[in-house]
TrEMBL record:
Protein name per Swiss-Prot or TrEMBL: DNA-binding SARP family transcriptional activator
Entries under Pfam families matching the protein: BTAD, TPR_12, Trans_reg_C
Gene Ontology MF term list: ADP binding; DNA binding
Keywords linked to the UniProt accession: DNA-binding, Transcription, Transcription regulation
One GO-annotated biological process of the protein: phosphorelay signal transduction system
Annotated region of DNA binding: 1-91
OmpR/PhoB-type domain residues: 1-91
Sequence similarity: Belongs to the AfsR/DnrI/RedD regulatory family.
Amino acid sequence: MGVRIALLGEVTAHVRGQRVELGPAKQRCVLAALAVDLNRAVSADRLAERVWGADQPRRARATLSSYVSRLRQLTAEVRVERRAGGYALVADEDVVDLHRFRRLCARAAGGGDERTAAVLSEALELWRGEPLGGLEGDWASAERDRLRQERLRAECELTDALLRLGRGEGLVAELSARAAEHPLDERVAAQYMLALYRGGRAADALEHYRRVHARLVAELGVEPGAALRELHRRVLAGDPALSGVARASAAVPRGLPAPPAPFVGRRDELDRLDAALDQAGGTVVISAIAGAGGIGKTWLALHWAHRHLDRFPDGQLFADLRGFSPDGAPLATEAVLRGFLDALGADRARVPVDPHARAALFRSLVADKRVLIVLDNAADTAQVADLLPGGASCTVLVTSRNRLTGLIAGHSAHHLPLDVLTDAEARALLADRLGADRVAAEPAAVAELIGLCGGFPLALGIVAAHAVAGLPLAELVADLRESGLGALDDDDPAASLPAVFSWSYRALTADQARLFALLGAAPGPDIGLPAAASLAGLPSARTRALLRGLEQASLVARDGAGRYRMHDLIRRFAADRAAGHDVDAALRRLADFYLRTAHAGNLLLHPYVTPIDLDPPEPGSRPQPLADDAAALAWFDAEHANLLATVDAAAAGGRHRVVWQLAWAMNTYHFRRGNRHDQWALWRAGLAAAQRLGDPAAQLLAHRMLGRASADVDRPEEAMRHLYQALALAEETGARADQAHTHHALTWSWVQADDHERALEHAMRALEIHRTLGNPAWQADTLNAVGWCAAQLGRHDFAREHCRAALTLQRAHGDREGEADTLDSLGFIDHRTGAHEDAVRHFAAAVDLYRAVDNTYQAVNTLDRLAESLLALGRTDEARTTWQEAESLYRSQQRAQEADAVRQRLATLDHESDAPST
């Protein structure tokens, strides 16, 4: 590269290594003012304001033109172009050190620590002193402050990477100077403290915290944030985890879809978003981008987001809330939260069931982080409220067809209405897609095409995609004129897109048109290739080719995970076309695909469950093979929303057998993932379906499963009612295995009710039946249930005998979760009989197994009991640590009563520790 323009120091330009004279300070300011917005137009008014401020000379425009003229002589590799009332500096990004710096910072994000450190070091080497050196004025001063903050962010990111790599000791001198320069920056303070601690200077680290704390209180009237307080606590405690290479950092989500290309216009809207971000001063920015469907809200949001990736080093989250999807089912806030928590690296097993608790956990994970959250296509404020961060460091972009008055009034959101593109912007979009020469060659056709499309980016993009295939623009216009652009049958009176969609639809092959229509009728927010193949009744390779054609026609979009989605308006149009195709057969194939794959997945997750009898497969349905339980979990994660939507569609269509069988197939997955409310709601639908079928066996199963699900969501009376109804049905029909399973379920319901005599009666009855059925897994479970109930009644020898028998069977057939249950029971018996060493051994083994199968709900119960045994052995510190972990888990699971009890035990321990010895 022969040209270099420096902004990260004194403003200079070099051509082939030789410094170029840039003239007076104002002329250098013009270059800098254009260079910061490289390749983007800066209006003459804005440029003059940057150079002279509010007090501009009378001939500012003429002088500005003179400066630009001189800068044009700089070199052929850098051009100053006249654009729409302003100017643009056009060059490769690497020409300007600022843009190379930003590109390197963006490239560093998300990589390994070694790569991050190397790339950030390269970026920071571009700095040669104070940015915009030699320039004066309000704009230069404000821009200089902003650039300093960018440099500080990069320095802090580099320091974090080096600290994770264990290089803290060598950073002390550098961090000392940075802490002196930024005495109130808590991130810098934390890094300096950690470097001091790793250098063996814990006392200096504590002293620095004291100084920062005092200064924050004196100058800002605030206490240090949670992260700095926690580091202080760990330094005080001499936490050994602080001494070596830190554990892997928390997940940094990169959830933004790709930026739109091309992007034209929206200069004012982009400026307003920039201003909202710059004026926030570290507070949450919520910009609600409103406009009609197809107006380009997502287009604008993603373009702006990708321009500012460097401002959000802690990641970006994106969710399509489907507020106006054709099936009328906006995405539930709980589902979005679940996705965000996964992206942020939250432990799935610790994610609470309660929606409000999930929202609180989300706010905790993004507190003090610089994360961008893009919430696309919101239905209303209520759908968005629980997705807003509670801290003061994140930025939120919300798009919606509605104004979202509640968000504006209640959360001080910046409202940004979005209108259609101007004729000039629409023309620029077509020129970018088709080439300027082609647009110039057919001016009349282009003008009419722009008018017919009404300035809607989506319409223009679809039309351009077909024009690229070679159809003359005049022929396109003639087709659109002949078809007409009828009004949309929704809340969008400003445009008429159906003719554009009709043209696209008519251009499809017969097979493409059929698949397009069937996709519009399919339940759920998206679809994977295997499901689409079953929907179409075609081989995967053929289906993939058809989807590729629809994608190229801009009728479907494929995300990073390879799943296919439709824009709301296109999907509505596709659904209207579905009437002419074999929709009922296609939906039966799709439901059969989901049911058979889910059935196989459930057997992988729970090998000891009794399979249910499925109807013969639908011709053309191709269930997806799943290799193991990990693959099954991944499939359920990807298809969960579609499975629930399929249940709803099956219920509405009278396919009741599919409803209860899908409830069965999803049962273990819901238990593993803690989706207890989904499980309960699904079994309510399953029972209703079984009753409509008049199928006694299905009703028996549904009553039992709904009883267990009701207990999981704290509905004990409902649980007992359904379980006893299930038992009555089992006894009436002579279903021995069902009788045993229901007695087993009743055992734990009575345990929860503290009636251990009655619980033991049901456990003994279940064991008696299971011994006649010959299933060792079922027999082992009931042996343990008998042992647990007997132990509660003080019959310890009897209890231990049954639990040992259970453990032998469970180890023989590899039932890890059952083995954990029994080890917990044996630990309980040991504790009750004073064998505390044995209790600790059994409890610890049980906890390890529970964690291995992601069952923290049971693990925390065992941790609680483990702490009691540790305390009985006089191992007070270990007991305290164990109870602290248990309290945290109880709180995350919304088990307040248990958490409060543990908190009281900890308080008692602390009081006893503080009491004077006698």
